[in-house]
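batch job 7 of whatever, protein = (S)-3-amino-2-methylpropionate transaminase
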Amino acid sequence: MATLSPILKQATPVVVDHALGSWIHATDGKKYLDFTTGIGVTSTGHCHPDVVAAAREQVGKIVHAQYTTVLHRPLLELTGLLGEVLPEGLDSVFYATSGSEAVEASIRLARMATGRPNIISFQGGFHGRTVAAASLTTAGTRFRSGFSPLMSGVHVAPFPHWYRYGWDEATAVEFALKELDHLLLTVSTPDDTAGFIIEPVLGDGGYIPTPAAFLQGLRERADRHGIVLIIDEVQAGVGRTGKFWGHDWAGVRPDVVITAKGLASGFPISAIAAPADLMGKAWPGSQGGTYGGNAVAAAAAVATLGVIERENLVENALLRGAELRAGLDALQAEFTDIGNVRGRGLMQGVEFSAADKTPDPETALAVQQAAIKEELLLLTCGPHGNVIRLIPALNVSSDEIQAGLSKFTQALKSATS
Ligand code: PMP
């Protein structure tokens, strides 16, 4: 008899029977409130009827229309719709299947377009698990330890971790930009640097919003040195933060945007977008993939974008996110184990740490496990695993946010008493 590999680290023992909206119905008969959304993927909730209908209809037309062999209608429609939401000027789109593949595509593009070898990523960033994407990832040792050598030509610069340093945000940004300039002077000169890659909110690295001034500093340096600014919106994009793109909070123009996860409510599709002249610097055939831009996934993405617009889900993420945050802030005042609450929209993190900021992964894990008993699903993140992340569906209701907060409160009480 075969069993699942222990390589998979299981966050909960739940086995799903079916799911709808924000609720997962398990085979044990329990009904769980899902604040994990498949790691920020089921943006329109589980099995939104419009997404299900679009996928069903597409399955009956064509499932796999390999996109370098023949084009298909859902991909053309999706490209048209993305044109309405992508940052201005990023009008050329390449599709892949997973976030990691799209990250790799952006690195290939930056290297080919500039003719330069190096990529600079930022401390605590998560960009995926394929070997190249893992080489950019410093969100935790488990993503890279033991399987080196990783891709060469990657340098990791400091991120403005204001909370960890015990500084205010402006001081942390000034420090991180100075360190970046020093790296560009001494380690990877601009002539050797193809791209910067950064998340608008650190995801697996601890749910830390990237300060606007830091992204603006990167934009300014990218312009000055001809470096490609790649913004990894795989987790923070598609409405999650209460604006369509996470970088909209900083008012910064990226050269390349990477999107995946929430784009198709759970169907696997990812994309990178860039200005046509930048994309044109890579030669035709330099990127591709058997399953890229799958027809059913593309149809689900078209339906997802339709639902997000019709149901005002970006606004809902902002409003419900504010309700969630208010509840979490109140809990921080009550529970001393909570060191910090932060995030944007429906991407909120609760860091467990002592008064001197020593990370407390034991309590985070105990709360996450106690929440399962309350029938609330949560995930942890951060290099120490001491942050609980709350990532409800973009169409979560006020009542569901309140239900989640009261279950979370119960879990905190039982784990810390
Ligand atoms: N970038 C970011 C910001 C992510 O959050 C993730 C997934 N957690 C990835 C890239 C990798 O995506 P995938 O797991 O689909 O390869």
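notes: Residues 366 and 415 are 6 Å apart (CA to CA).
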